[in-house]
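Forwarding the complex inputs:
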Amino acid sequence: MINMLKMDFYRMFRTRSMYVIWVIMIVSIIFTTALAAEEYDQQEEMTASQQEEIANRNTSPENVNLGMSVIVPTEDGRNITVFDMIYANAQAKCIALFLVIFTVIFSTADINSGYIKNIGGQVSKRWQLIISRAGVLFVFTILSLLIFVLAQAFGNWIFLENFQWGDAGDFLRYMGIQILLHYAFVVICMTIAILLKNNVFSMIIAICLCMNVMVILYSLVDQVAAKLGFTEFHLLEHTVTGNMTLLSMTPDKQACLSGIGVAVLFTLAMALIGSFVLEKRDI
Amino acid sequence: MQELLLQTKGLTKQFGRFKAVNQVSIHIKRGAIYGFIGRNGAGKTTCLKMISGLSTPSSGEIELFGYRGRELSQVRSRVGCLIETPGLYGNMTAYENLKIKCELFGIRKVGYIEEILKTVGLEDVGKKKTKHFSLGMKQRLGIGLALVGEPDLLVLDEPINGLDPQGIVEVRDTILSLKEDRNMTILISSHILEELSKIATDYGIIHRGSLLQELTSEELMQRCCERIEVVLEEPKRAVPVLDSLGFRNYQVVDKEHIHIFERLNESAQVNMALAKAGILVKGISITSEELETYFLNLTGGAAND
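Prediction (whole assembly, two chains):
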């Protein structure tokens, strides 16, 4: 298993697309920060109530919109902190989008190139290849989110006045849960890519998930549940992408547990499915 | 009898109702170069995939190095394979492609990768990405990848397919040097019989998923080479006659045929001796068969295509 991890790490750090994705991510974060700074100056004229209305409209489970919208949660008259921007980007699944693009490329590289034929027959437990891949993608997720935080901090420092990190405790708690949720999302996309063995379709599905396309399905399920008497049931609250969007900047214990639970459950389930498929499937 | 390194018993692979491989039982001796002959779609690749552990048999058994069933996983790492086209990361160099597999096997030995590159004649490729390699270079790198971990059995599926004459010679030389230098057992499939005949020590002929025949190189040559073919009613009665004439290299093929592989200019004497012994000779001729013709006859002829 250790050797498999070493192999996958070697492969990952020699995959050029990883660096390309990181560079595009950094550039887009800095660019959107510049746009946010400009927009914030204009928004200062708006009333606090209007902003609150916008914020509420975009974080209630019933009203998660299709597409990708980045809403900075900073209250009127206060400085935009690094945490505010990170929250806005994470909630909108901007970073998740970059993560899943690499995940799909990396997860299917050996299948598409046929390299798996060189190793698939010689490993005694083929399912371990998936666990190894998932392990390497965890490191990739952490590194990517670290780069994201640093790029965001750099963007704030350049474009916004009064550089501030925000509340450290809340920030760390929020980031901890978002790391798990982003990782769960990565594992979901990895499994989808392995199941489909097709980069294009896998990437379309991953991007659609980032764009909240599934809310259409979720709302249908919610309606059925409501008719059955479960009026308070919202499927979105039990999904990885839903938790990524709904997790507040100051999550209470219940929200933390929900986020962690969903992340762990999906990670394990999807890794299990991927492992089973690779073990049983002919190469 | 020489030790068997690999044998299959009733190996079958079924896709829906179609049996791609049907009850194949092959026997490969240690140190042999086993030529697996069959037309396109005969089931060669499917069979080799099962042997290499890339595919699970629908039924039947594989015995490798004396291990079978679940125990097989213990010896899977001793089988290197190149199935169909070489699987390479195009954006990486030959060195990096080999390094990835070395990491999997935990091989840290200095100069190991360079040695493999030298073995397959790619020591001078430098930092050239494999996507810019010629087909021959890719095939050789594919063989190089199969060699990582010093396998005892090398499975090569159509390694000379699509190569130019120069590439074919290079791959053939590589295979022969592996056999001579490392005493490796090699299972090699191809539909190019002439090429296989230059290296193989044993043959298995597969047709429409079924193994038709297994024979050694000598047996195959014997069946294909120039000979006196005698057609008669009771071959058993002819044996003492041939012995008395001093023939040693002959074979009673079936109930009507005897093949004599020596002293081909003495067919008249044979005919006379048999007649004197009261054996009715229906026909006597000097004949030979091309390897290709032998194969075609065995698999039902070209009309079966």
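Chain A touches chain B through 27 residues (CB under 8 Å).
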